[in-house]
Amino acid sequence: MIGKRRAYEELLVVEARTGDRSAIEALVRLRGPRLLVHATRLLGDRDQAQDAVQEAWVEILRGLPGLRAAAAFPAWSTQIVTRRCVRIIKGLQKGRALAAELTPLIETEQPEPDDEAARLRWAIDQLPAEQAATIALFYLEDMRLTEVAIALDIPQGTVKSRLSKARGALRALLEGEGDDHEIH
């Protein structure tokens, strides 16, 4: 299924390069939701994420003719969204730091033990944004280490480190130890 989806996406990229409007629309429908989820993980705010993704699509479509390999599109487009999110975060950093100091921690309720997928999504949501984004791209988006590094605009060693930390934190959360340990 993933192979077929990637092949279809590559075909859309090739057709979109020629200006094929229907291919562009299909590409936005196919990749857009994934980019929005990624931006939401990074920003923690769906409205800001929608703005970031919308602005990123302008850049993506402008840069599409220069993209050398259609297979690179998922990582390349995610990298553009990541950079947009970084700009937003930098602009809001001071305000967020103050808000974080003033806002009490809100505990979320863990889902029922028999719903593994819901428990995993809950656990990923508990991770720091950079770990959640890294683990989601690697496991949920099925990107290779090099693709995750490109998508997040970080060195491959940092990807490995974040994956290791995220796996440990997920293990602790899913085994019930997350209640006693702060996750960083």
From TrEMBL:
Domain RNA polymerase sigma factor 70 region 4 type: 121-170
Keywords for this protein: DNA-binding, Sigma factor, Transcription, Transcription regulation
Residues covered by the RNA polymerase sigma-70 region domain: 27-91
Source domain of life: Bacteria
GO biological process: DNA-templated transcription initiation
Position of the signal peptide: none
A Pfam family annotated for this UniProt entry: Sigma70_r4_2
Gene3D superfamilies according to UniProt: 1.10.1740.10, Winged helix-like DNA-binding domain superfamily/Winged helix DNA-binding domain
Annotated GO MF terms: DNA binding; sigma factor activity
Matches recorded under PANTHER family: RNA POLYMERASE ECF-TYPE SIGMA FACTO, RNA POLYMERASE SIGMA FACTOR HI_1459-RELATED
Similarity remark: Belongs to the sigma-70 factor family. ECF subfamily.
NCBIfam families hit by this protein: sigma70-ECF
Protein name as annotated: Sigma-W factor
